[in-house]
Structure formats: structure tokens, C-alpha cells
Amino acid sequence: MARREMLTAYMFVAPAILMIAAFVLWPAVITFHTSLHRTTLTDPGPGEYCGVENYRAVMSDPEFRRSAINTIVFTVLVVPAQTVLALLLAQWTNGPGWASRSLRLAVLIPTMISLTVLSVLWKLLYEPVSATGSGLFNGILTSLHLPPQPFLTSPRQAMPAIVVMSIWQGVGFQMMIFLCALQQIPAQLREAALLDGAGRWRRFCHVTLPGIAPTAAFVVMMTTIFALKLFVQPFLMTRGGPQGSTLSIVQFIYETTFFRRDLGLACAAGAVFFVGVSTIAVVLRRMLRAAECLR
């Protein structure tokens, strides 16, 4: 009976295992193998074996290093801000009234729209002042008699502009996850803390935070992984500029493949990126397990 149950379990998970093997494991093996050869997009054959030469070229490439710094900066800015804002919004909308439901829907709508569409829309909103007009944001600044801003055309402002857009687009999803966690906290705990004279801040620190700690760790882990895969926003809004200030690792891999046509170098960059993301995921997974122990 135990053997039959084990066989049944394997039959149920077999489709998922096959999908992961076909679309994750096998491409990873091919990527690593290609990274050890001199291979171009126009001649994608095995190529000449070059060992770790592609990895040395990637690590010494100033564009790759800049893209890595940009991706890390984006992640460091987006993850804390989006997580805290999502938690605050979840606290604010954690109620049964129509106003709370309407606010949830308003915050959640951007997550339902294609990121490509939103990137194009926000690029128009960020348009600088010109003879034909300006974007909405510069129009508001002009109407308030404030100096217009270059936004996406400035090396200093381009990344913060993309960060603001990304937080606005993704905060609704994290808000709903936090909202589900808040509604799972037993009401008796809040009532007991209230009877003991605990204020709003103490109830939040000693009841709410321990109750949502595993959820918060999960949100941080998923938001970090999504942020590290930055591509659509800078590619459509700035093309990685100005002066490479918004170039991401994924865009570097894309341009190395299709513009420079150096498939071996692109695969080496992809392998380095895969190892980095996997390491961060493992660390965040341990944080998630530690947060689960707080319950």
C-alpha cells in the first residue's frame, strides 16, 4: 500500500518535474555549456572551447559591472519601499467597508495591466518640456511655477523615476498578500492586547508583526527576485540610458546576444546572473524559515 501511494504521488508530480526539467534545468545546462565556448549568434554551433575566458571577459566588462550596480541599486530602492508601502496600505484597507474595498481595487488595478503598456504610458508622463508640449508631471510642475525636470533624460533622475513607476505598479500585489496575512491573525490576540492597555504601536509590534513575519519574509524574497530581473521598464523607457544609468543585467544579456551577437559571452553573463540570484534566493529562504519560527 505504501509503495502504491508513493507511485501515485510520483505520477501527480511527474508533469511538473518534466516541465521544470524541460524549461529550467535543460536550458541551464545548455547555457553553461555554451558559456565555455566561443559561439556567435550567426554561428550557434559548439564553437571552440575557451574555458573560463568568457567569464573573465564578462567580469572585466565595464558595461556588465555598471549593469550589475544598476540592478543592485534598483533592488535596494524598490524592495524596502514597496514592502513597507504594501504593509501600510494593507493596514489601511483592512476593513469591511466599501471605502476599503474601493481603495484595494484602485491599488490592485496597475498589477493587472501589462508592464509593457504601463512603461510606455509612464514614459509619456515623464516627457520633458518641448515645443510640442510636455508630460503630465512637468505640466503639473509648470502650473505650480516650479522648474520642469528632465526625469528620464537625466542620468541622476532616470533610475529614481523608474523606481517610482515600479513601486506604483507592483505594490498592489504585495498589499493583497499582506492583507490576507492580517486577516489570519486571531482577533482574540488584538482584543487581549487592547484590554491590557497596549497602544496602537505596541499592538502592531507585538501582535501584528509576529503574526505576519513569515508573509513579510516571503514578500521580501519574491520582490527581490522580481526586482533583480529588471528589464521591461528601462528597455522601453530609456533603452538603458542615459549614459548607461539604467542598464540592467538582463538588458546587458539581451544586447550582448542580439546586438553584439556574442552568444558565449551572453551565456557567461547569464550563468553569473543565475548563480547570483540563486545565492540571494537561498539566503532569503533561510530568512523565511527563521521568520516562521517566530510564530
What layout of secondary structure does this protein have?
Elements: H1 2-35, E1 37-38, E2 48-49, H2 53-60, H3 62-93, H4 98-112, H5 115-125, H6 136-143, H7 158-184, H8 187-195, H9 200-228, H10 232-237, H11 249-258, H12 263-292
Antiparallel strand pairs: 1-2
Helix pairs in contact: 1-12, 2-12, 3-4, 3-7, 3-9, 3-11, 4-7, 7-9, 9-12, 11-12
How would you explain this protein's 3D organization?
The protein is an all-alpha fold. It has a single domain, classed as MetI-like fold (Orthogonal Bundle). 74% of the residues lie in helices and 1% in strands. It has twelve helices and two strands, in the order H-E-E-H-H-H-H-H-H-H-H-H-H-H. Strands 1-2 form a two-stranded antiparallel sheet. Helix 2 packs across helix 12. It is flat and about 75 Å long.
What keywords describe this structure?
single chain, 295 residues, mainly alpha, MetI-like fold, flat
Largest sheet: 2 strands, antiparallel
- In helices, the fraction of residues equals over 70%
* CATH architecture heading: Orthogonal Bundle
CATH class term: Mainly Alpha
CATH superfamily: MetI-like
- Class inferred from helices and paired strands: mainly alpha
Could you say which overall geometry the principal axes of the C-alpha atoms support?
flat
**Radius of gyration from the alpha-carbon trace, in angstroms:** 24 Å
Number of helical regions: 12
Number of domains: 1
Reading the helices and strands in chain order gives HEEHHHHHHHHHHH
